[in-house]
Amino acid sequence: MLTLFDDVFSPYARKVRIALYEKGIPFERVRALHGDCNRRDFVDVNPRAEVPAIIDDGFSLYDSTVICEYLEDRYPVPALYPADARLRAKCRLIEDLADTQLDAAMFAVAVVEMGRAEQHAEMHNAAAHDIMRLYDELEAQLGTKDFLCGTYSLADIAVVPHVMAASFLGFTLDPGRHVRLLAWFDRVQARPAVMRDNADVMQTLQRLQEEKRPAFDPYRLQWRSDRLEWVIKNGLAEWFREEMRAGRAFFPLAVTQ
Ligand SMILES: N[C@@H](CCC(=O)N[C@@H](CS)C(=O)NCC(=O)O)C(=O)O
Where are the domains of the chain? Predict the structure, then answer.
């Protein structure tokens, strides 16, 4: 059986789980990070110690995009990428927008506001501005279609966990400005695979709250390229310097680990 090293809240792990549910591929989960447990023994599967990672019949792989493409090649039915070459490329671009831009726009603010229950107005405003820009772009990409690439695809699967996470942070879709994206959000969330994963996220969140345990350690965080780029380009280099000085930030494959 396929093994998935995951974290219930990771948008990247969510992308892979939803793809696995859609394709009907059975899998067992090893919860690898954060509030549920804190296993680091998957570094031999992913040296970057990031989720998701998989082992499929002895074959190890990591990075959600690489994993989803592998799943599509190995388990092609039902297809989760469009057949047309240009639409397929578009699908990958939208997935990349979700993975590198939407994620980065809300990572720091999730740490500060959700994790630490603190406020940072400059950071909040930069995130709000960026998320709105990305929602506008997705609204335009969607146009009059039901799904971002016409038919339901990895593009929808990659974006939906971020829209849900952003709404938890108060960055909701604007009903006056993102009319079509709002209808799209309902449509994608009605997919049984997405509903199943949403239920898991909500139940875990509720359980952690009842147990008074955090969903992640907001004072010891692994950062990576896009998330750091977002901080620097939004004038928050000094804030990050303090994170590093205080030992709250670390990086994949750092020699000091
Ligand atoms: N490009 C990677 C990014 C994966 C990633 O950044 N995962 C985060 C969770 S959202 C992680 O595992 N971080 C390590 C940690 O928090 O310790 C992918 O698409 O899988």
Answer: 2-74, 85-210
pLDDT digits (tens, 9 = 90+) for 14-68: 999 999 999 999 999 998 875 544 556 678 889 888 999 999 999 999 999 999 9
d(CA 207, CA 245): 33
Give the class (CATH, top level) of 85-210.
mainly alpha
- 198 CA distance to ligand 1 middle (Å): 19
- Of ligand 1's listed atoms, the one at least distance from the Cα of 51 is 12
The topology under which CATH files domain 2-74 is: Glutaredoxin (3.40.30)
Q: Which atom of ligand 1 is least distant from the CA of 67?
A: 20
- Find out whether the beta carbon of 99 lies less than 6 Å from any atom of ligand 1: yes
Quick check: CB of 189 below 6 Å from ligand 1? no
Which pLDDT band, with edges at 50, 70 and 90, does 255 fall under? low
149 closest CA partner among 52, 219, 84, 66: 84
Q: pLDDT digit string (tens) for 68-92?
A: 999 999 999 999 999 999 999 999 9
CA distances to 74, 93, 248, 257 from 158, rounded to whole Å, are: 19, 11, 28, 30
How much is the pTM?
0.96
Domains 2-74 and 85-210 in one fold: no
How is 33-60 classified by DSSP, letter by letter? SGGG----TTTTT-TT--S-EEEETTEE
Residues ≥6 apart with Cβ < 8 Å to 125: none
* Residue pair 51/10 in contact by the 8 Å Cβ criterion: yes
- List the structure tokens of 225: 């390229």
